[in-house]
Amino acid sequence: VTTVSEEVEKAQRAMGEFLLANHPLDCPQCDRGGECELQEVIFDWGDVEERFFENKNVAPEKFLSPVIANDPQRCILCKRCTRVCDEWMGEDAIEAANRGVQTVIGTYGGWLNCSQCGNCVEVCPTGTLLDAVYRHETRPWELEQIISTDAYSSDGMQISIGARGGLVHRVVARDRYVDGLNGEFLDVKARYAHGFINHEDRIKTPLIRYAKGGKFIPATWDEAIKFAAEKLGEAGSDAAVIASPRLTNESIFALKEFSAAVKSARVAVSDPFDLRPIFENLSVELATHAEIRKARAIVLIGGEPEEEQTFTAKQVRQAVRNDGAAFICVNDTPINLSRRATHFIHTAPGTADAFALALLDNGSIDAAAQKMAVDPSEVRRAIEAISSAAGDVVLMFGEGISAEAQRALAAGAAKLSGEGRRVLLHPLARYNNSVGANDILSQRKSVADALKGAKAALIAGSLQDAKALDGVGFVVVQEIFLTETAEMADVVLPAASFAEVDGTFTNNAGNPQRVRKAIEPVDQARADWLITAQIAREMGSDIL
Question: What is the pTM of this model?
Fold first, then answer.
């Protein structure tokens, strides 16, 4: 195969000329300028002779959704956007219409009826599809690209934060910046939900409420730290320490050390999904996302990965679509992923546990089917597909089934392995660092137990239910915004966001990944680990 020759070069230059025949040469005002693949190709194969003098196909710029803009005249009909919409997302929301020179990339009804993931924008080589949130804000070469980890999903997707002058302008996952487990894939939250970082409603200064029911008074950091340390010191071992599963591992470790310094056993994580039944009974390894993609059988019992673990869902779709993997989906609700299932068992509400037990004990299939209100043959066919798979079998489950079923699946998974068949687990953890919090605070209590009878509480982040703080004498909250939890505090300390700290998150495959500082903390915010360490130091303990 000859890839470099005069004939090949002539063909490449001709292709560049054809691509420019209908392409507007408005690079100085195009948002993709500096990152445009067509621009790079033409630069590499310069001195392109323009021999066509026909009119350009001019079409007005428009919006396909609130977050995706479209300039159709810049399209080179590569059809990458249509492929990722089909192959990655399974949505088919964007497609090529018309024929010949009239071909355009369009949507049904002129509007993108989809999850707004923006992956079509990510793979577009020109300025045809654009990020409407970032559009016309700055030029790509003016941004500092900082590689970090997604703060929403437990999948641990790698992202590139584009920052300039203390502002976060965009988040992308282009391979030119990132070489992470997710490649160029991101979901709608990772890509577009970064406006909170520089939001005007963020807490700007420490706040102290000197009397219950009184107003918050802005204070200096020294005043707030001293006041918080004094009250927490008075509570001693009756002070509760609660960590958010959104914090970095380093901040959670600081809270653990703080609880040891005050000799308190009242430690908790504000995560409604307790991972201990799974991780304390593991009999097989955790599945990586690459292993999910190449699995021969995937079992999803309860849960909805497309909402919280979007990259996991994408790997499942591709394993089924591209490699013909068996996909057994057991749920009491038809979810989007169930459309891809080779075996969908639509159970009665709250009975998915029965399938988990039948999977481990084939003798209980009839009883399980009766409980789930399905035909026993459906259950047998699904279990047969699992037991006959040659290769990796991945069991996925989360808070959609009971703790007893989680414990049984984690402990009994090894029994499902056989000759040529390896069974792996993939817990559907809810938050970006749920697994890290489980690892570090393994001896934790529930939030209710930690707060019951507590005289004081140090909370980093917010609680699922702020009413749990009723009856706690003194509350210190480290937060970004004045949430319901912060509104009930006596001292509120402004915390830094994930884009303003260095640290690590641990994803649902058990991999710690770097979180890097993209900008300096806004206003007077400080990293959570630093705040906790300063309170401890004021109390006479050097925890870090």
Answer: 0.93
